Amino acid sequence: MMTDVMEQSGSPTRPEAEQPVPNGTEATPAAVDNAGPVEARTGTEEPTASARIVQIRERIDEIDNAMIALWQERAALSQEVGATRMASGGTRLVLARERKILERFRVALGTDGTQLALLLLRAGRGPL
């Protein structure tokens, strides 16, 4: 399993399935999910498929946590670049750099990549 990701508060987060249950034992996904039977959580009653869906979703949650941490780190670094540039008498933005980032994401991910890059840029520099 991937290393725990730190929340902004500095405390480690763990997927729901790993949270301890009140009696101190480790919980299984079914034990911590209040959504009811497995089929309500996974959309299928077939046990093998349901178990696989739970595994896949755990990995998706790990990836989401990593992406959130990377997003926050990227935004902080971008803000530092902007503050450093402006403190030295430079401009607020470097449009050529933004275009390069937009193009990199567009080439890699298509139209959705452009939208993602726009959100990343905004997180780092604020709205235009």
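Second entry:
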Amino acid sequence: MLLLDSALEVIPRELASHPQVVKTARRYGLRPEEMVLDAGLHWKAMRSLEGWWRRGRPDIVHLSLLNLLEKRPVLEGKVEVYMHVQDGRVFAFAPDVRVPKNYDRFKGLMAQLLRDNRVPPSGRPLAWRVADSLRDFLGDRRIIVFSEGGASSDTLSVLREASSLGVPVGFGAFPRGDFSDEVKSLALKYYRIREGEPLKSWDVACSVANAYYEL
């Protein structure tokens, strides 16, 4: 079981009337609430947000999911993939979900997911809300977290330990800063891989995806 801890969110209400947000919404023919917050488009507007430095990077989520999904362990149902978002909700992905390779299409899909709590709106869901908070999602369990500040290990050993304990493994899919207080309060252990070499989120996702083939 794998969890992406992301800061994915739609345009917050307090930014909906910001000139930069209004301009980009018009460019795409959308209402502000139909767009995900994207630092590439909204960097001026989002600087007023609390913890802005860890928000507004849906591209990190996109690249991480592309490295995880459509892999045999996921397609065969051996690995469940979940995503934790800015407002605390947790979403599940179906084993056969195909994430759009086009970035704009991906953002549109994520905006729909955040708005409707599932995609597609009807029929069999390919992604859907499973909990309103990480604590509700975990229940009596905790989570093992990949972090540069953790104990040194290798990816396969971490996955084996998590499997034996029956707990999820998580990693950050945000640009900067620490994990949220909620994540830290529920972390069982922290591990760093590749001797603490600074890794991008999608590098961790790739390492995890490869390790699952050997698990």
